[in-house]
Design a protein that fits this description.
Distance between the termini: 40 Å
Largest sheet: 3 strands, antiparallel
Strand order of the largest sheet: 1-2-3
Number of strands: 3
Order of helices and strands: HHHHHEHHHEEHH
Length: 216
Amino acid sequence: MEFLVSPLILKSHVSQFALDEVIIFNEFALSCIRQALSANSEGKSTDWDRDREAYCLTLVCAFGLRSHYFADRSDIQDLLIQYYDPQRSHFARLPAIQDRIIHSSGTGQYYMLGRLPLVNLTNTGNTLNQAQRDALTMLNLLCAVPSSTELLSRFMEGKDAKKLLEAELSVQIAQSTSEGTIPEILSQHARYWRGLKWLLGNYGHDIPLSAIQNTA
């Protein structure tokens, strides 16, 4: 992909074989997201270098960094939002992969999946109501892709923001438990300040001051 859209080929006599960077990225992203969502929930592999499902499950978390590429592609946006839904079957694969990322000493330690909060079902009676499910999806988006205004706005369409911001959640972040509402959890971790900033800028009127008084 990098070669086909590089200045090297665009300035050469074979430039007619060049591809548009946005188009090729979107098709690549669409394929990876679909494969991640259809991953075997009982699969055990965490080897993102050799296993196709593990590769897609790991890589998709970073696609929000280029959300401007698919700002007008609602099909990609909707599928990517499903990736962050904790009750989708593929989500069962993420804890093991994240554990490998957290304990990695190589480039893997910087993968975006390592930033993703993982729902702690043992503290919620092993079930989630719809408000909690939507709130956890929103939290995941805020933590993983806080700069993706298009993705966050797409997710919030038709949803009651106040209800989501009042939902009580329990998640694992870097293998430590965090509990509370979305603003409370975000304010407990300095690494998520961008997500908290977006939240305050768009829904600050629905957030009580007490919920962010412990902001790092």
